[in-house]
Write a structure and sequence with these properties.
This protein is α/β, with parallel strands linked by helices and about 300 residues long. Helix content is about 55%, strand content about 10%. Strands 1, 2, 3, 4, 5, 6, 7, 8 and 9 form a nine-stranded mixed sheet that branches. Strand 5, helix 6 and strand 6 form a beta-alpha-beta unit. The longest helix is centred in the middle third of the chain and has 29 residues. It is globular, with a radius of gyration of 20 Å.
Length: about 300
Amino acid sequence: METHMDVGFIGIGVMGQPMALNLLRAGTPLTIWNRSPDRIEPLRAAGANVAASPAEVFERTSTVILMLAHDDAIDAVLGRGTPQFETNVARHTILHMGTTSPEYSRALAADIRAAGGAYVEAPVSGSRKPAEAGELVAMLAGDADTVESIRALLKPICRETIVCGPVPNALLMKLAVNIFLITTVTGLAEAAHFANHHGLDMTQFRAVVDAGQMASSISRVKSLKLVTRDFDVQASITDVLKNNRLIAEAAREASVASPLLDVCYALFSETHAMGHDKDDMIAVVRALEARTASQV
């Protein structure tokens, strides 16, 4: 179904670019802006209007999707803390689709509402490939009427939209799901490292994993990347390490034990320090290999 909402999209990165392309293909008129212009051209070719500044996006649209990496980037494009903030967000609906701390989102929601805008927290589960296929899962939080009003907009991006209640429940849900993702992928990397170190046939290893009861879309993708040593990014070490840190902080604040996550945090930190920050998260196997080598 086509949608004709007047929509802005800010943040054309690894995830944002395919998400915006899927909106355009569904007939959604988009006005876009990105700090680095190199990723904009495919969207311009697909019919997007390219704004000269974030302020122009807000001037030309009433609903703005933010797919940005961190708090500072969000504050900068919104003009938060400046007189421009109210001009930007008043009478607008802001969809925050990136991953930040729940407390940051709670405070941002309050500021947007105070300035006369509406806010929906909408982080997604999935990496580049699901983004390209329009198969992301969005967790939504905010005022019930506002949340319901934007669900149709997200259909070209998301296979499922799940309402989680008030802000910041969507981000808390995203962090909870990411514990499962991070520990699962790290466990798969350790299993592959064990098999490889014992001289097993890695094609057979992958076949067993793919045929077994633990197989999933993520295990199939990541096991292939392990066997072929393909570390082309889908979800980067940097991004996963950031998410790991956010989960750890939320766990500490709530006095929640997270021992598996803490081990993963150490391994992703080591992988990042080795210079693999832009590689896919499955490159965490590099830290395992380094630890093994240090014991020889």
